[in-house]
Specification:
This protein is mainly alpha-helical. The protein has one domain. The protein is about 80% helix and about 0% strand. It contains five helices and no strands. It is elongated, with a radius of gyration of 19 Å.
Length: about 130
């Protein structure tokens, strides 16, 4: 029983380490790659409007990064339907920048699943 609790603690520490490193990558993207991403989405009215509204602070950058993530998802928001020029920009968005967005968000999603598994495992151990 002691070994299983030690293994559980190791999984929790590993999962928390992955999450912290992933948030560091997301902060890096928001601070250093966002300007390049926005340069490829020049025709997106929604992004330009939020850039003017939210400014260049941390909140504004995070908001615009989430907006770009929503636009690049497989099922884009209904807000994009009012902006047909943005579809061409999204289609031509470079793959190397798309990876900077998709990979951290997928890692976060799988980390949430990992916590659900660990929560279920903790209820079995108790």
């Amino acid at each position: 029983m002691n070994e299983t609790k030690l293994l559980y603690a190791a999984f929790v520490i590993a999962l928390l380490t992955i999450i912290v490193l992933n948030f560091a990558v997301m902060a890096f993207v928001g601070l250093f790659k966002l300007r390049e991403m926005e340069s490829h989405l020049k025709n997106c009215y929604l992004l330009q409007a939020y850039r003017e509204e939210t400014g260049d602070g941390l909140y504004g950058r995070k908001y615009r990064l989430n907006l770009i993530t929503a636009m690049l998802s497989k099922h884009p928001s209904l807000l994009l339907l009012n902006d047909p020029c943005a579809f061409e920009d999204i289609r031509l968005f470079p793959l190397h920048l798309r990876r900077w967005i998709e990979i951290p968000y997928r890692i976060n999603a799988f980390s949430c699943y990992g916590f659900l598994v660990l929560f279920g495992w903790a209820s079995i151990l108790a």
